């Protein structure tokens, strides 16, 4: 087996046991990027020289007898809206192509301190505001399962990099499903942590808008749930000046056995695609076989939770009072997308709340009471699989989007943890589910996700599917 095929934990173990050097692990992933990335365009910038220098220094330190860190020699990639010292934090937009960060974002610094080595930056849609990864600065990222289907967004580059073996581990973020949706599209796992777990602070644009402080979190992407657990344990330590940061123990108190799970099969009344419904059934069966008690239920006030998420994002998601016209800072494709989606977005906000934050607290109390009885929720990420490229430019198609993502955005609104985990393949595309837990109970989510993963078997790494042959090139 090639080194690039191994997970983060396996690579770290090989380095600790001196069966592989840090340089060998980095070189293996850099070669994989060189071989595969031209077909998928997930890695936008390769940090090869710096990564090899870091690997050389780590190998020399090990040779002098220094103990290996828990992630020593493990390569990782970072989405282009997370600061990496010496690399541009572009947000996928042309005006920020030279916005080079002088400091690492806290989770990047934490992984470096554990011995991991950043090897590249990954693609994202402009501003992270689209569910398909494409922009004028870097171009489109292709789904390795099917070039005709979206890789998801906004952490689409990360999901593709990990799925194809270019990286065993990545850092992305999630404000409305942006880690979990690409994981579903690409057949990888992702952890959306609780609000406050992983520090958000970075230097790229000063204080973030309130909506992004409240709804968005950084989290890991990997091919195995065990690697999510390993990375997460080393992403939470320092606050980086983030006032939301909460240094809470990684493992909570026992919840009693058997652990109860609510299966939300039709979130808010939405009817899932047959492939997604089958993935939920198989995940529920795996949990039941492992001793969990799974009962079908409806999440409380789910439709309203999705509406309040939209209201908060709409009211408090701006960096400036007066925004420049979208076409002056973004691509023609993004401008088309936003023109089509803005009316849908406005309608999905529902009845305006007198005070959306006050209503959020009421919703959080409802969910807390529900989850005190059944601490885990098994639900779809999106009720449909990866869509054909270009579908999200169609106003008619977009009209149905909000109801398909209700469970994903409710998790962001309430600051809860969730793990996306593959649960099989249908019609040639990966299918995934999410396990949602109470705040700061990532441990419960990861435990259940490992059960589902064991039953489904590995889906990645994979080689990209061949590009379709155009008639004029046949």
CATH topology: Amidase signature (AS) enzymes
CATH superfamily: Amidase signature (AS) domain
Integer-rounded radius of gyration: 21 Å
Order of helices and strands: HHEHEHEHEHEHEHEHEHHHEHHHEEH
Strand % is: 5-15%
Percent range of helical residues: 25-40%
Q: What would CATH call the architecture?
A: Alpha-Beta Complex
What is the CATH level 1 assignment? Answer: Alpha Beta
Structural class: alpha/beta
Number of helices: 16
Shape: globular
Q: What order do the strands of the largest sheet run in, or round the barrel if closed?
A: 1-3-2-4-6-5-10-11-9-7-8
The total beta strand count reads 11
- Mean pLDDT value: 95
Q: Biggest sheet, open or closed, and with what strands and sense?
A: 11 strands, mixed
List the helices and strands and how they pair.
Elements: H1 8-16, H2 22-40, E1 43-46, H3 48-63, E2 75-79, H4 106-113, E3 117-122, H5 156-163, E4 169-174, H6 180-186, E5 189-192, H7 210-215, E6 217-222, H8 225-233, E7 260-263, H9 274-289, E8 293-296, H10 302-316, H11 332-348, H12 356-373, E9 376-379, H13 395-398, H14 401-404, H15 406-414, E10 418-426, E11 429-436, H16 442-456
Parallel strand pairs: 2-3, 2-4, 7-8, 7-9
Antiparallel strand pairs: 1-3, 4-6, 5-6, 5-10, 9-11, 10-11
Helix pairs in contact: 2-3, 5-6, 8-16, 9-16, 10-12, 10-15
Structural description of this entry:
This protein has one domain: Amidase signature (AS) enzymes (Alpha-Beta Complex), CATH 3.90.1300. Helix content is 38%, strand content 13%. It contains 16 helices and eleven strands. Strands 1-3-2-4-6-5-10-11-9-7-8 form an eleven-stranded mixed sheet, sandwiched between helices. β2, α4 and β3 form a beta-alpha-beta unit. α9 packs across α16, α10 runs antiparallel to α12 and α10 packs across α15. The longest helix is centred in the first third of the chain and has 19 residues. The radius of gyration is 21 Å and the shape is globular.
């Amino acid at each position: 087996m090639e080194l690039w095929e191994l997970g983060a934990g396996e690579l770290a173990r090989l380095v600790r046991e001196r069966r592989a050097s840090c340089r060998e692990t980095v070189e293996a992933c850099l070669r994989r990027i060189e071989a595969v990335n031209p077909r998928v365009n997930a890695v936008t910038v390769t940090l090869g020289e710096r990564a090899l220098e870091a690997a050389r220094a780590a190998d020399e330190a090990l040779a002098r007898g220094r103990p290996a860190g828990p992630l020593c020699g493990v390569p990782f990639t970072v989405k282009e809206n997370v600061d990496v010292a010496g690399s541009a934090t572009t947000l996928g937009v042309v005006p920020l192509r030279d916005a080079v960060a002088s400091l690492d974002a806290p989770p990047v610094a934490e992984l470096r301190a554990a011995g991991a080595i950043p090897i590249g930056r990954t693609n994202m849609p402009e501003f992270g505001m689209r569910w398909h990864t494409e922009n004028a600065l870097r171009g489109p990222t292709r789904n390795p399962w099917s070039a005709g289907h979206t890789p998801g967004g906004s952490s689409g580059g990360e999901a593709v990099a990990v799925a194809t073996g270019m990286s065993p581990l990545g850092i992305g973020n999630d404000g409305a499903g942006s880690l979990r949706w690409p994981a579903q599209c690409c057949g990888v796992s992702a952890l959306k942590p609780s609000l406050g777990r992983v520090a958000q602070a970075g230097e790229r644009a000063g204080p973030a808008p309130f909506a992004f402080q409240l709804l968005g979190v950084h989290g890991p992407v990997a091919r195995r749930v065990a690697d999510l657990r390993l990375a997460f344990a080393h992403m939470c330590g320092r606050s980086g000046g983030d006032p939301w940061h909460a240094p809470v123990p990684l493992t909570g108190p026992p919840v009693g056995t058997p652990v109860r799970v609510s299966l939300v099969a039709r979130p808010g009344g939405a009817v899932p695609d047959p492939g997604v419904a089958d993935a939920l059934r198989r995940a529920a069966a795996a949990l039941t076989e492992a001793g969990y008690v799974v009962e079908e239920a409806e999440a409380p006030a789910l439709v309203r939770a999705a509406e309040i998420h939209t209201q908060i994002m709409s009211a408090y998601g701006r960096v400036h009072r007066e925004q420049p016209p979208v076409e002056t800072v973004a691509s023609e494709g993004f401008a088309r997308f936003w023109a089509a989606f803005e009316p849908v977005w406005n309608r999905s906000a529902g009845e305006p709340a007198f005070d959306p934050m006050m209503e959020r607290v009421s919703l959080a109390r409802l969910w807390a009471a529900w989850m005190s009885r059944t601490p885990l929720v098994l639900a779809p990420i999106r009720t449909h699989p990866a869509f054909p490229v270009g579908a999200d430019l169609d106003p008619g198609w977009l009209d149905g989007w909000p109801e398909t993502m209700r469970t994903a955005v409710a998790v962001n609104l309430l600051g809860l943890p969730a793990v996306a985990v593959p649960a099989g393949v249908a019609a040639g595309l990966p299918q995934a589910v999410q396990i949602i837990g109470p705040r700061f109970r990532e441990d419960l989510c990861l435990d259940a996700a490992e059960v589902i993963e064991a039953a489904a078997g590995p889906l990645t790494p994979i080689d990209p599917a061949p590009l379709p042959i155009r008639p004029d090139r046949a």
